[in-house]
Amino acid sequence: DAKTTQPTSMDCAEGRAANLPCNHSTISGNEYVYWYRQIHSQGPQYIIHGLKNNETNEMASLIITEDRKSSTLILPHATLRDTAVYYCIVRSGGSNYKLTFGKGTLLTVNP
Amino acid sequence: DTAVSQTPKYLVTQMGNDKSIKCEQNLGHDTMYWYKQDSKKFLKIMFSYNNKELIINETVPNRFSPKSPDKAHLNLHINSLELGDSAVYFCASSPQGGGEKLFFGSGTQLSVL
């Protein structure tokens, strides 16, 4: 699976949009981009995933560049409860897959 | 109802002891996992079971033995505990072996003294 690069940490003001970048320049055609987050002392939580089209759900939006070498997770109106480590993961399809977590980005939402 | 539940939440024990962590999921998923998160917060897969069959074993010491009595349960038994086993262990499940979403439990913090 392709490696990802994320900033170590980011800050965001409460109520503003949080834009979390991820580089995955070695991504191949059949690899998906996944985002998970881990709030302190909790298990990781799935947020969203996509292949090449932009995706939106009740939690966030995922913007994938046309060359698929990078993506951005957008939390449209960040709240204090969105403070967490956000993981960008790239993985291929298939039945015996595994998710490989990197270091992620610590997003701190400030009041 | 908790989707993926682990017990106990905290486990403190002495070196050399044997302990078990239990995991149950009520989502009807076919695949279950154990992940380990060390003190540096790296989250690494240990095992994956699909319909009670082992499909992933990430070079984990054989002191760790997962057991899946049915597809809703995946327990982790650890023999001869060592200091380096101290970590948070997360159980997870997904609909199929290639399921898009993993659902994680809240973790078991294991401290070996």
Question: Top keywords for this entry?
Answer:
heterodimer; A: 111 residues; mainly beta; four-stranded antiparallel sheet; globular; B: 113 residues; seven-stranded mixed sheet
Description:
The complex is a heterodimer of chains A (111) and B (113). Chain A is built from no helices and nine strands. Chain A has strands spanning 9-13, 18-23, 31-38, 45-50, 55-56, 61-64, 70-75, 84-92, 105-110. By secondary structure, chain A is mainly β. Helices cover 0% and strands 56% of the residues of chain B. Chain B is built from no helices and eleven strands. In chain B, the strands form two sheets. In chain B, strands 2, 4, 5, 6, 9, 10 and 11 form a seven-stranded mixed sheet that branches. A four-stranded antiparallel sheet of chain B has the order 1-3-8-7, with no helix packed on it. At the A-B interface, strand 3 and strand 4 of A face strand 5 and strand 10 of B.
